[in-house]
Structure formats: structure tokens, C-alpha cells
Design brief:
Low-confidence stretches: none
Shape: elongated
Number of domains: 2
Largest sheet: 3 strands, antiparallel
Distance between the termini: 45 Å
């Protein structure tokens, strides 16, 4: 872990990323003579460097540049529903998280619930990390009209076309 054997450049690269900053050092064959010695030196450097660096930040609940909704783990998806050879556009707010029992997450249709309602339900599902719709609905009833409800709606960045 943290080591890569670069045969083209004839070196062992040691890389550690913490708080979006790369810490890297190369251990060349010219310097160490053999791959085994270079890798041993690289492991020693990694061990010493890890001891002084802060622990890694987990990916869970981290906002990334790919996020388009304004809330981690919530996205807007466009689907087409077909019934009796007719096509109906369907926008859905989907909540997902690591370990979600539903492979695609849990979603609420904008057509059925309205944009704001569906968005807030998806946010609550993500916060509670549950697919139990009754529990999410109960939380929504307590949440509706609160200051946090209004704050959450201000976070929303996209609305269906």
C-alpha cells in the first residue's frame, strides 16, 4: 500500500495523500541497487511519514465537485417511464449511501411529491440512512415548516426542467 514499482523510470514511488495534499518520494535503483532494497527504504519512509501526518478524512459525507444537488448523497435523476406503449418523463430525487440495501438508492418522484417535497424526503433518507419510508415520512412531518427545512431547500442547486 502506498508503493508503486515504476519499471520505466527504475524507481519505487511512495505516495500518501492527506487533506488533498500529496506527499511523495522516489527511491531509485541507482540509489539503492535492487528493487528489494528500494522497496524496503520506501516502506520505512511511508511508516515514518504516516506517523506524523493526520489521519485520512473518510469519503462518507464529503462534498465533491461531482455533487450537483448541494447535499451529499442526494442526486436528481431523469428516467422515462413506459405504460401502454406511451412514454412519460419522470424526474426523481434519489438518496444513496455506502451500504444502502437498495443498489440504486431510494427515490421520490417529482411528479408525485413535487420538487421540494421529493428533495427533502431524499435528504432525510440520506441523513437517516434508511429505506423505511414510514420512518422517513414521520421525520418529514416533524421537519416540515422548520427553520432547518427552509435552510435545506436553500442548499438545493438543481430543479428539473
Amino acid at each position: 500500500m502506498h508503493l508503486t514499482r515504476n519499471e520505466t523510470e527504475k524507481c519505487v514511488m511512495a505516495r500518501i495523500v492527506r487533506q488533498k495534499k500529496l506527499h511523495q518520494k522516489n527511491f531509485t535503483l541507482k540509489q539503492y541497487g535492487t528493487w528489494t532494497k528500494a522497496e524496503a527504504a520506501a516502506r520505512k519512509w511511508v511508516k515514518a511519514t504516516l506517523a506524523v501526518l493526520p489521519p485520512p478524512i473518510g469519503m462518507k459525507n464529503r462534498m465533491t465537485s461531482r455533487n450537483t444537488s448541494g447535499v451529499v448523497g442526494v442526486r436528481l435523476v431523469h428516467a422515462v417511464r413506459r405504460r401502454e406503449e406511451k412514454e412519460y418523463p419522470d424526474w426523481r430525487w434519489i438518496a444513496f449511501w455506502p451500504g444502502c440495501p437498495n443498489s440504486g438508492g431510494i427515490g421520490w418522484s417529482v411528479n408525485k411529491y413535487g420538487d421540494d417535497h421529493a428533495f427533502v424526503l431524499a435528504c432525510l433518507a440520506r441523513k437517516l440512512e434508511t429505506v423505511d419510508r414510514a420512518a422517513i415520512d414521520a421525520e418529514f412531518e416533524a421537519f416540515l415548516g422548520s427553520r432547518d427545512y427552509k435552510r435545506l431547500l436553500k442548499l438545493k442547486q438543481i430543479t428539473p426542467g
